[in-house]
Amino acid sequence: MKRRDFLGKSSCGMAAFFAAQGLPRPVEGGPQQQQAPPPPPKRRKYKLEIEIYEARPDTWCHKKGDKFAYPQDIGKICPWLLASLHDFLRLLENGVTLPWKYEGTPYEKMIDPEGVTTEYVRCPDPTSNLVAKITRTAMP
Protein backbone atom coordinates (compact mmCIF):
# COMPACT_ATOMS: atom_id res chain seq x y z
CA MET A 1 0.00 0.00 0.00
CA LYS A 2 1.28 3.42 -0.86
CA ARG A 3 1.79 5.93 1.94
CA ARG A 4 -0.70 8.36 0.41
CA ASP A 5 -3.37 5.65 0.30
CA PHE A 6 -2.61 4.62 3.89
CA LEU A 7 -2.86 8.14 5.31
CA GLY A 8 -5.44 9.73 3.07
CA LYS A 9 -8.09 7.23 2.06
CA SER A 10 -8.34 4.93 5.02
CA SER A 11 -9.82 6.07 8.32
CA CYS A 12 -7.90 3.21 9.88
CA GLY A 13 -4.68 4.65 8.48
CA MET A 14 -5.44 8.11 9.88
CA ALA A 15 -6.26 6.65 13.29
CA ALA A 16 -2.93 4.84 13.31
CA PHE A 17 -1.15 8.00 12.21
CA PHE A 18 -2.68 10.14 14.98
CA ALA A 19 -2.13 7.45 17.59
CA ALA A 20 1.53 7.20 16.58
CA GLN A 21 1.89 10.98 16.87
CA GLY A 22 0.14 11.17 20.24
CA LEU A 23 -2.40 13.60 18.78
CA PRO A 24 -6.17 13.57 19.23
CA ARG A 25 -8.20 12.22 16.34
CA PRO A 26 -9.99 14.81 14.24
CA VAL A 27 -13.76 15.04 14.54
CA GLU A 28 -15.57 13.17 11.78
CA GLY A 29 -16.73 15.47 9.04
CA GLY A 30 -14.28 18.33 9.43
CA PRO A 31 -11.18 19.75 11.02
CA GLN A 32 -10.89 19.74 14.77
CA GLN A 33 -12.21 22.92 16.40
CA GLN A 34 -9.73 24.54 18.80
CA GLN A 35 -10.81 26.96 21.48
CA ALA A 36 -8.79 30.11 22.03
CA PRO A 37 -6.72 29.94 25.22
CA PRO A 38 -7.96 32.10 28.09
CA PRO A 39 -6.25 35.47 28.41
CA PRO A 40 -3.32 35.49 30.86
CA PRO A 41 -4.08 36.94 34.28
CA LYS A 42 -3.06 40.54 34.82
CA ARG A 43 0.38 40.74 36.34
CA ARG A 44 0.45 42.30 39.79
CA LYS A 45 2.88 45.07 40.51
CA TYR A 46 5.04 45.17 43.61
CA LYS A 47 7.31 47.63 45.34
CA LEU A 48 10.54 46.03 46.60
CA GLU A 49 12.71 47.56 49.28
CA ILE A 50 15.99 46.19 50.64
CA GLU A 51 17.05 47.06 54.17
CA ILE A 52 20.31 46.05 55.84
CA TYR A 53 18.91 44.13 58.81
CA GLU A 54 22.21 43.06 60.39
CA ALA A 55 25.80 44.14 59.82
CA ARG A 56 29.02 44.35 61.80
CA PRO A 57 29.66 47.95 62.92
CA ASP A 58 33.05 47.96 61.17
CA THR A 59 31.89 46.41 57.88
CA TRP A 60 33.24 48.09 54.75
CA CYS A 61 30.15 48.12 52.50
CA HIS A 62 26.79 48.65 54.20
CA LYS A 63 25.63 49.74 57.65
CA LYS A 64 22.67 48.42 59.60
CA GLY A 65 19.56 50.36 58.59
CA ASP A 66 20.70 51.27 55.05
CA LYS A 67 17.74 51.12 52.64
CA PHE A 68 17.60 50.64 48.90
CA ALA A 69 14.73 50.68 46.43
CA TYR A 70 14.77 47.93 43.80
CA PRO A 71 15.58 48.31 40.92
CA GLN A 72 16.34 52.04 41.23
CA ASP A 73 19.25 51.69 43.69
CA ILE A 74 20.76 48.48 42.31
CA GLY A 75 24.08 50.20 41.56
CA LYS A 76 24.48 51.19 45.22
CA ILE A 77 24.42 47.59 46.49
CA CYS A 78 27.63 45.62 47.06
CA PRO A 79 28.11 43.05 44.25
CA TRP A 80 28.45 40.15 46.72
CA LEU A 81 25.18 41.00 48.41
CA LEU A 82 23.48 41.71 45.09
CA ALA A 83 24.48 38.26 43.82
CA SER A 84 22.80 36.70 46.87
CA LEU A 85 19.70 38.86 46.50
CA HIS A 86 19.22 38.36 42.76
CA ASP A 87 17.14 35.17 42.72
CA PHE A 88 15.01 36.27 45.67
CA LEU A 89 14.31 39.64 44.05
CA ARG A 90 13.31 38.02 40.76
CA LEU A 91 10.97 35.60 42.52
CA LEU A 92 9.37 38.22 44.73
CA GLU A 93 8.85 40.72 41.91
CA ASN A 94 7.00 38.01 39.97
CA GLY A 95 4.60 37.21 42.80
CA VAL A 96 6.26 34.08 44.19
CA THR A 97 6.01 33.55 47.94
CA LEU A 98 8.60 31.26 49.51
CA PRO A 99 6.86 29.15 52.17
CA TRP A 100 9.45 28.82 54.93
CA LYS A 101 8.95 31.19 57.88
CA TYR A 102 11.97 30.74 60.23
CA GLU A 103 9.57 30.72 63.19
CA GLY A 104 11.18 31.47 66.54
CA THR A 105 14.22 33.21 65.02
CA PRO A 106 15.07 36.89 64.50
CA TYR A 107 14.40 36.26 60.78
CA GLU A 108 10.75 35.24 61.12
CA LYS A 109 9.02 36.27 57.91
CA MET A 110 5.76 38.02 57.22
CA ILE A 111 3.84 36.33 54.41
CA ASP A 112 0.81 38.04 52.91
CA PRO A 113 0.52 37.58 49.12
CA GLU A 114 -2.10 40.34 49.02
CA GLY A 115 -0.06 42.81 51.09
CA VAL A 116 3.43 42.80 52.60
CA THR A 117 5.83 39.84 52.37
CA THR A 118 9.39 39.75 53.72
CA GLU A 119 12.45 37.61 52.96
CA TYR A 120 15.90 37.54 54.60
CA VAL A 121 19.14 36.95 52.68
CA ARG A 122 22.67 36.61 54.04
CA CYS A 123 25.66 38.04 52.18
CA PRO A 124 28.29 35.42 51.27
CA ASP A 125 31.17 37.69 52.38
CA PRO A 126 32.39 35.86 55.51
CA THR A 127 33.76 39.06 57.07
CA SER A 128 30.59 41.17 56.90
CA ASN A 129 28.01 39.18 58.93
CA LEU A 130 25.48 41.05 56.79
CA VAL A 131 21.79 40.12 56.46
CA ALA A 132 19.43 41.98 54.15
CA LYS A 133 15.66 42.10 54.54
CA ILE A 134 13.59 42.34 51.37
CA THR A 135 10.12 43.79 51.79
CA ARG A 136 7.61 43.28 48.99
CA THR A 137 4.48 45.43 49.04
CA ALA A 138 1.61 44.75 46.63
CA MET A 139 0.66 47.84 44.67
CA PRO A 140 -3.02 48.64 44.01
Plain-language structure description:
The chain is α+β, with helices and mostly antiparallel strands and 140 residues long. The chain folds into two domains: 1-34, no CATH class; 46-138, no CATH class. 24% of the residues lie in helices and 20% in strands. It contains three helices and four strands, in the order ααββαββ. It has helices at residues 3-9, 11-21, 79-93; strands at 46-54, 67-70, 116-122, 131-138. Strands 2-1-4-3 form a four-stranded antiparallel β-sheet, with helices on one face. The radius of gyration is 27 Å and the shape is elongated. The termini are far apart. The mean pLDDT is 83.
| Percent range of helical residues | 10-25%
Element pattern in H and E: HHEEHEE
Stretches where pLDDT falls below 50 for ≥5 residues? none
> Which strand order do you get reading across the main beta sheet?
2-1-4-3
Distance between the termini: 66 Å
Number of helices: 3
Tally of extended strands?
4
State the shape: elongated
Look at the structure and give the mean pLDDT: 83
Strand content: 15-25%
Number of structural domains: 2
Helix/strand-derived category reads alpha+beta
Main sheet characteristics: 4 strands, antiparallel
Brief descriptors of the model:
140 residues, alpha+beta, 2 domains, four-stranded antiparallel beta sheet, 4 strands
